[in-house]
Write a structure and sequence with these properties.
Layout lengths: L19 E2 L6 E2 L14 H28 L3 E6 L6 H15 L4 E8 L4 H8 L4 E5 L8 H25 L36 E6 L16 E7 L6 H4 L1 H6 L2 E5 L11 H11 L4 E4 L8 H9 L2 H31 L7 H5 L18
Parallel strand pairs: 3-6, 3-7, 4-5, 4-6, 7-8, 8-9
Antiparallel strand pairs: 1-2
């Protein structure tokens, strides 16, 4: 159950507030209140307080994670998408491509799913270390989960390194396919393999594949440097407007499975336009994990000097913080100065598609 996201196991309690009703169609908008979400049995003010408490506790650990990653020389990326977008397939292809083009870069993966270790098993089959995190009924990863998984990665890699050293006491060299196995993850060692080195970019990459969900993970900081939203062209070009919080929180959007475009009516230009309505500064890449088209641009982004991404992330964080402050001030003003009742026609009219979207909370408005 995720109270903050509005997913409740109980559905019989009387709602705290009535939704906005479209006068022509009867469509209901439950995200119009100060909390931007309706939770059965909770007032809007109580919902806001719970969200502040829960996310505040999470953000303390996220800040610690971010410092821990930096101390280990790790660039952490939070991969978010709906189920079936191709995240794991993209990660497997990315790991193989990095081995070929940037073998000095250590890679590890934290896999998030409600059940099974299928995805982590696929990652481990590439030779990269991976830890599966099963959330049970949880709809997203949180910072404490990532902290424990990262510690488990380090423990596992240390044990592997110790075992490897005893098994091969006479030879500490590694070929490209096993380069990552000789190191405790997060600690870069200089080895010259005669390949191109990105000395000013990432040396250790941690991919955090979140639970497939375009709603809840938008709110939760894991300590990552950036969120990467993956959108399959089989999903429809309107996803950025339907799920605006996720695309507003992402620094990069990958349009995946572009090899299928000849068989679909997906409008690439329209999708990009929708994404930029929600997030004008978002970077967009077109990619096919199956054919490899667009893979080089993705690798270039991954291996860029982190300073550029930190600057963009700082701006995004500052914008989100300011929006949250304004929303809180607006909620306080509404509480102190309640509006007089309005007719349905005055309150119910909804704006054109895409004209209203939230940058801070699911289902809300700017």
């Amino acid at each position: 159950m995720c109270v903050v996201c509005g997913c409740s196991e109980t559905g019989t309690s009387k709602p705290d507030s009535s939704p906005e009703v479209h006068p022509a169609t009867g469509d209901l908008h439950f995200g119009a209140g100060p909390a931007r979400v309706s939770v059965p049995g909770l007032t809007q003010q109580r919902t806001i307080k719970i969200e502040e408490d829960v996310l505040g506790a999470n953000n303390v650990i996220a800040t610690q994670n971010r410092a821990h990653f930096a101390a280990h020389g790790v660039r952490a990326l939070n991969l978010v998408s709906s189920p079936g977008s191709g995240k794991t397939t993209l990660l497997c292809a990315t790991i193989h491509a990095l081995k070929a083009h940037a073998p000095n870069v250590d890679v590890a993966v934290i896999e998030g799913d409600q059940q099974t270790s299928f995805d982590a098993d696929r990652i481990r089959a590439t030779g990269a270390p991976a830890i599966q995190v099963n959330t049970g009924k949880g709809c997203h990863l949180d910072a404490p989960m990532v902290a424990q998984a990262f510690a488990q990665l380090s423990t596992h890699e240390h044990a592997h390194k110790h075992s490897h050293a005893h098994a091969h006491p006479h030879d500490h060299s590694h070929d490209d396919d096993h380069h990552n196995h000789g190191h405790e993850y997060g600690h870069h060692h200089d080895h010259d393999h005669g390949h191109e080195h990105h000395s000013h970019g990432a040396q250790s990459l941690l991919f955090i594949e979140n639970v497939g969900n375009l709603v809840c993970p938008a709110l939760w900081d894991l300590g990552e440097e950036a969120k990467v939203a993956i959108l399959s062209v089989t999903e429809g070009e309107d996803k950025p407007l339907k799920y605006p919080d996720m695309f507003a929180a992402a620094q990069l959007m990958i349009l995946n499975k572009i090899d299928l475009l000849p068989h679909l009516s997906f409008d690439v230009a329209r999708c990009k336009d929708y994404a930029r309505r929600v997030n004008p500064g978002i970077t967009i890449l077109e990619l096919s994990a199956t054919t490899g088209e667009g893979m080089q641009a993705w690798l270039d982004w991954l291996l860029e000097a982190p300073a550029h991404h930190h600057h963009a992330s700082d701006e995004q964080h500052a914008r989100q913080t300011r929006i949250a402050q304004l929303e809180a001030e607006l909620a306080q003003l509404k509480a102190e100065n309640p509006e007089p009742p309005r007719s349905p026609a005055a309150r119910g009219s909804l704006p054109p598609e895409g004209a209203r979207f939230a940058l801070g909370r699911p289902g809300g408005e700017s």
